[in-house]
Amino acid sequence: MSLITRFLNRRFYYFLIILLIKSIVARDVVFGNGFSWLTLLTEIPFIVAVFCLIEFFAGKRKMLYYLIVNVLFTALYFSILMYYKYYGIIVTTDALSQADKVTEVGESTYSLMDPYYLLIFLDIIVIAVVLLLPKFKKARLSADLRPRRSKVWMAAFALSVVVCLVNVWPNRASMNENKQAEEMGLLDYEVYNIIDKMMENEPITPIDQITQAKIDEIKGIAEPASPNYFGAAKGKNVIILQMESYQDFLIGLKVGGVEITPNMNKLIQEATHFTHFYAMAGQGTTSDAEYVVNTSLYVPKHKAATDVNVDKVLPSLPKVMKESGYSTATFHTNSVEFWNRTELYSSLGWDKYYDQKFYGDEDHLAFGSSDEVLYAKTLPELVKMDQADKPFYAQVISMSAHHPYNLPSSKDRIELPAEFKADSLVTRYLKAQNYADYALGQFIDGLKSSGLWDDSIVLMYGDHQGLPLYSLDDEEKALMKEMLGTEYGHTEMFNIPLIMHVPGVNQPLVNDKVGGQIDILPTVANLVGASLKNQIHFGEDLLNQSSELIPMRHFLPSGSVINNENLYVPGIDYEDGTNHKVVDGSETTEGGVTEDEYNRALELLHLSDSYVQQLPLK
């Protein structure tokens, strides 16, 4: 009997070993516990059950089915690896449905890949080639490919299914998707997720029961009778700048004596810097940040807002501003079709949008024209809007400092110490943000020289994290610790800046109140004197409220929440979760987010989801 024939006859065992090795690789990257008895108990039963079905029913095409299963499971393990490296959670079918976006952000996706990940495809290539070679035809024909309908296969199948159910059932109530996947097994988790989604019948709170008073009560806040700064900038323009991948630690940072963001460092000497402000984007990242800021609603679970919510008539900041007599426009050098922004902008009610058709492809970086081009071409449009007979609200979205931060050498403006290797993600990030800061400085100068600065509220914030903790290797994490003087963890990763310039209003240069992107809408509305009495919003006015409760979604497990002092990440349930201080990111066992706050945060997410689902269609 030839070697190939023996392999074909023992296909069950060989393919089981192959997929076990791949599951070990995936678990080691995601959970840090590659091979263990838990791996055998959670990953093998599902594979065995599928192989038993093939042996029981398949005949001459048996090897083809083994190959198909091997390819599908391998692709899933690979997707789990890649998705976790950026998002920090386990990929689901909802995320896999966005695979078409990979072609748009290919460079960003490929940069997350460790070369050894590709080795999990090696066996597929070798086996396929060998089985297709004519010289192995005799071996293929002599292999035993008859169906095996014995009691042994039936018993093995039944036992495997029982073990899968035992893995799944006790863990189905866990809020933490990563813990669920670890305890259930990666394959069990994916199947459970599909079935759970099909059977999902979560009750919806009727829209007439979703009131602002109820939301405020859950958040633990009360609307002041006479809010501070109400209408303090009435009639002023509003310019909101969304800065790509911008994290708060960049401000004031020096590396080797070099300022990374010198223009921002100057700016915070004359504008208020909110130092504990957090990103709230989901799967749609940049587009989700636009959604949250302009609606004061939470992103949906496991999906981009632009995929599920933009068929609705959304309450929004552009609509609030238009009711107050403002014209509105949004500026972005990428194509408006990407992330379904055509529908997003329609739902938000922008008067006008400027995209790649307006900016062209001049000085192309990342997904469109550079920030220099963005600002140079946007400024004249803002001046035109300012010359009209009414004020304007404009959102400007930068993009040059986009992951994986591969700027051309012509944009390189700083030299970093030798320990910052050129191919390091950290090095590329710092240089990209230094360039973005250079372009920002030109824009601020233009706003000032045109008179817009003194006649406009200007808000600047980061759209989402730039250095995912899950993407950094040990050397890069050590470099971050040396650079920041503290461990780089979740609080540092989600901490983005909010810079607020309000002409004629004196505020402290530093504001340490905890806030999130969802708070921008009510804060701006208060400053321009716009009423939100008839508009549901889940954020709060940062200039009047002192407490905060920020449910986090997508980049952290469900149930994660930030309050005034801590970022909480649940375990299997509330009791085994962890708290991280917002001041320095250190883990703490004292105080922390209470179970009541945890439950209230989940209720807020539920109310937001219920509210959007019941909004009228466009």
From TrEMBL:
Subcellular location: Cell membrane
Major localization class: membrane
Family: Belongs to the LTA synthase family.
Pathway, per record: Cell wall biogenesis; lipoteichoic acid biosynthesis
Active site: 286
Domain Sulfatase N-terminal: 236-529
Membrane topology field: Multi-pass membrane protein
One GO CC term on file: plasma membrane
Binding site for Mn(2+): 244, 286, 463-464
InterPro entries: Alkaline_phosphatase_core_sf, LtaS-like, OpgB/LTA_synthase_biosynth, Sulfatase_N
SUPFAM superfamilies: Alkaline phosphatase-like (SSF53649)
Gene Ontology terms for molecular function: metal ion binding; transferase activity
Residues at which substrate binds: 402
Transmembrane segments: 12-31, 37-57, 64-84, 116-133, 153-170
Listed name of the protein: Phosphoglycerol transferase MdoB
Any Pfam family hit: Sulfatase
Keyword set, alphabetical order: Cell membrane, Manganese, Membrane, Metal-binding, Transferase, Transmembrane, Transmembrane helix
